[in-house]
Amino acid sequence: MATKNKKLSLKDKYQYLTRDMAWEPSYQKKEDIFPYERFEGIKITDWDKWEDPFRLTMDAYWKYQAEKEKKLYAIFDAFAQNNGHQNISDARYVNALKLFLTGVSPLEYGAFQGYAKVGRHFSGAGARVACQMQSIDELRHVQTQLHAMSHYNKHFNGLHDFAHMHDRVWFLSVPKSFFDDARSAGPFEFLTAISFSFEYVLTNLLFVPFMSGAAYNGDMATVTFGFSAQSDEARHMTLGLEVIKFMLEQHEDNVPIVQHWIDKWFWRGYRLLSLVSMMMDYMLPNKVMSWKDAWEVYYEQNGGALFKDLERYGIRPPKYQDVANDGKNHISHQLWSTFYQYSHATNFHTWLPSAAEMDWLSEQYPDTFDKYYRPRFEHWQKMQDKGERFYNNTLPQLCQVCQVPTLFTEHGDPTQLSLRTLEHEGERYHFCSDGCCDIFKYEPEKYIQSWLPVHQIYQGNCEGADVETVVSKYYHINIGQDNFDYVGSPDHQRWQAIKGNRPLGGDDDSRDAA
Amino acid sequence: MSQLAFIVFQDNDNARYLVEAIAEDNPHAEVQHHPAMIRIQAEKRLVINRATVEEKIGREWDVQEMLLDVISIGGNVDEDEDHFILEWKN
Amino acid sequence: MSIEIKTNSVEPIRHTYSNIKRRFGDKPASRYQEASFDIEATTNFHYRPLWDAEHGLNDPTRTAIRMADWYAVSDPRQFFYGAYVQNRAKMQEAAEHSFSFCDKRNLLTRMPEALQETLLRLLVPLRHMELGANMNNSSIAGDAVAGTVTQMHIYQAMDRLGMGQYLSRIALLIDGSTGEALDRSKTYWMEDVLWQPLRKLVEDSLVVKDWFELTVLQNLLIDGLLYPLMYHKFDQWLAEQGAEDVSMLTEFMRDWHAESCRWVDAMLKTVRAESDANAEQLQRWIAHWQPRVIAALQPLANASVGVAALDEVVGQFDQRLKKLGLVAEEVAA
């Protein structure tokens, strides 16, 4: 037996400490132990070729993660003890957090369970371990987000029933259906959807500008959880790239399947992130960068480098990338205009951009803002000045796939709403775009199942027939507290009081139109 | 087309040493300071060497310690006990 | 006046999230509560899983156990992620110290070769069982329907990976990190008749579909019998053979098992108390699996501590089951 102890190389050590613990079963059939690995048509000939995306053993994982958590919770404690919420730029900022907590945090939980599932079901032990680590990380993310928001929830409205709302509120079916779609898919599609398309290609657009935005708006708690979570994200991104390369290298028959998934999940992710676009351009009182700039840096530039790298496997950039690139000039304005009209049915407030903010938007969007969007906001401002704050009481048409109201415009023609319809087995379905319509066509049996909030209200499945009852009873949105315009809201009044300004009257006349 | 490999750190004390080491080992890299974060990008390839970081930080340093401060990366990862490389290969 | 307003504006307008208020009343909540309860989606799922058309996502019927509210099961340790990793970081620091101590002083390599071989044959192959336990717990974390339940199982899954890694490192200490001892140890797991009943049991557990049956099998029955046998009885036996230094390297497992019993017991008590139907179902699973677990451990006992020690372990385990309101299946070891 060897007597000399030499220090293991990281790679060797990791092989011994992970996949070498696995064995070829002989008492049960491999396909019974791993029943979900084949049905998607992905061919894996040799799991030994799996490259571990990072090589953390559990001892190192516990050590580093504990260090991160210790730092993080020290800051949460300090933030709460010092009433850190009083130091943010403006209370309007908190509405971005409301959107985040109800829209994103529950997805982290879904990711936790999704990765736990695939972390059990790949027959390659290296891939399993990588997925399990991501699984427990995702649990970390939902929990640290809940803890970061805990203090805000004590001082602001709209954060109080995030999980209940996530399952029910109309616009939250956008993120929810996105994750349900991934979790109900097979394990390889799940990883393409979440690890690659979401974590690798798009997550920077969510976290980096959002966290910089938090930093710019004095929100220490969110910056801290965000950056702490992102330090896990670097590992997740590596997994995302490795899994794609692995599938592509394993068998040429995998290429068209993966390409289809990349097309689908790029588009799904792009639609989901339209919520982030309005957050960046409209909800941050101190702006960091425009959605357009963020899209250019984090998608066009990074994505360009990535898809060039993947060319060698026969992968091309996602279909409808050109539509998304064109949309960078429009979607934030179109989204915010829509949410402005439906503020009576959301758990966060909306408001009209100030004159200074509109000037910033003109500067950032020289080709589109003044031409297409400023007039709309100025018109609503006039109405609001007259005490006729505009609320739209007609329920919107939702896209059957992404579930965003069909509010987007045609590629190249921002005056024309983009609508597609399709008949399937005698039913007519509506879509916001060719991207979503294609996704439906490929798997109609999946998307006919969509739980579309507007249809559900009409069918009487939401505890009431009128919007007000649905909003209060079914959604748990506290009317007059969580919803309506920011101006005159209880959040606004409390903020004025904090800042020592004269509180506005609670009987503010700007939101009587609901 | 330009292909930038990049790494982004939280702007904190650890990161200052890391950034210094990376700038030294990657003369073609550009360091950008953003609110609360530092982004380093370089055409095609970016390398972090353990030896250089140890020299800057004045103690033993495990490449994996980087995981505490990193926010985002771009490029294929190649990691062993002596270095962490981000690279676009095509 | 303005000072008064300032004071009022610092007063919170609520103490906690609405879901926590509904459960525990309108008062400040613990971090464990806010991070654990009601965080899993319960309704309005969009699509049925392609991999299991019989069930929906987050479907409570993936187990035969019925609970009006799965959040009745909670963690007596109150572990949320931050508390969990900080606890384990402390445990690993102690373990690291022991491994480095053994390494520096060559405590394993200076043992007689036959004794080293005993470790490779009888102790180190448990790393494979740990990997099976890791998979089982990850599976449960993916299938269970309440945040309080899922998180305990993902912690358990990661713990098992960690303990498998510690066991592997024992062999790496012996072979000087060539991996040669690990390969030999794995051959025992694959081929030695001694291990085949346990390997079969682990493989059988990997095809169990009902997630609560799986937690009963893995976390109650296999662990509840294997850990006392291998990490207490067998550990003492090793000491008698002159391998007392190994104890340092398995201290983590003893501490871990003592802790793990607390939440496993709490979970089973709650589930059993819910209904007679649950109690009967648990009893059926125990009746089915317990004799198989004992039989799988017999060759290991025969080769080391003897059958009387296993009987003692079984007796103690029966006491544990009784305390949980469950009856042990009548089997002689």
Considering DSSP H and I runs of 4 or more, what fraction of the residues of chain B is helical? 10-25%
Query: What series of H and E elements makes up the topology of chain A?
Result: HHHHHHHHHHHHHHHHEEEEHHHHH
Rounded mean pLDDT score of chain A = 93
By secondary-structure content and strand pairing, the structural class of chain A works out as mainly alpha
Q: Architecture of chain A, CATH level 2? A: Orthogonal Bundle
Q: Low-confidence parts of chain A lasting 5 or more residues at pLDDT below 50?
A: 1-5, 505-514
| Structural domains of chain A: how many | 1
Protein name (chain A): Phenol hydroxylase P3 protein
Pfam families (chain A): Phenol_Hydrox, YHS
GO molecular function, one term (chain A): monooxygenase activity
Keywords (chain A): Monooxygenase, Oxidoreductase
Structure write-up:
The complex is a heterotrimer of chains A (514), B (90) and C (333). With 514 residues, chain A is mainly α. Chain A has a single domain (47-511), classed as Ribonucleotide Reductase, subunit A. Chain A is built from 21 helices and 4 strands. Chain A has helices at residues 10-17, 30-33, 58-81, 94-103, 105-121, 125-155, 162-166, 173-184, 187-216, 220-250, 254-283, 291-310, 321-327, 331-341, 355-364, 369-385, 434-442, 444-447, 453-458, 467-474, 490-498; strands spanning 409-410, 413-417, 420-424, 427-431. In chain A, the strands form 2 sheets. Chain A has a two-stranded antiparallel sheet. A two-stranded antiparallel sheet of chain A has the order 3-4. Mean pLDDT of chain A is 93; it is low at 1-5 and 505-514. Chain B has 2 helices and 7 strands. Chain B has helices at residues 13-25, 50-57, and strands spanning 4-10, 30-34, 37-43, 45-49, 70-74, 76-79, 83-87. In chain B, the strands form 2 sheets. A 4-stranded antiparallel sheet of chain B has the order 2-3-1-5, covered by helices on one side. In chain B, strands 4-7-6 form a 3-stranded antiparallel sheet. In chain B, strand 2 and strand 3 form a beta hairpin. The longest helix of chain B has 13 residues, at 13-25. Chain C is built from 14 helices and no strands. Chain C has helices at 2-10, 18-24, 31-36, 81-104, 113-123, 126-143, 147-174, 180-191, 196-205, 211-240, 246-249, 251-274, 276-302, 307-323. The longest helix of chain C has 30 residues, at 211-240. Mean pLDDT of chain C is 95; it is low at 1-5. Chains in contact: A-B, A-C. Chains A and C meet through helix 1, helix 3, helix 5, helix 6 and helix 7 of A and helix 1, helix 3, helix 4, helix 6 and helix 7 of C.
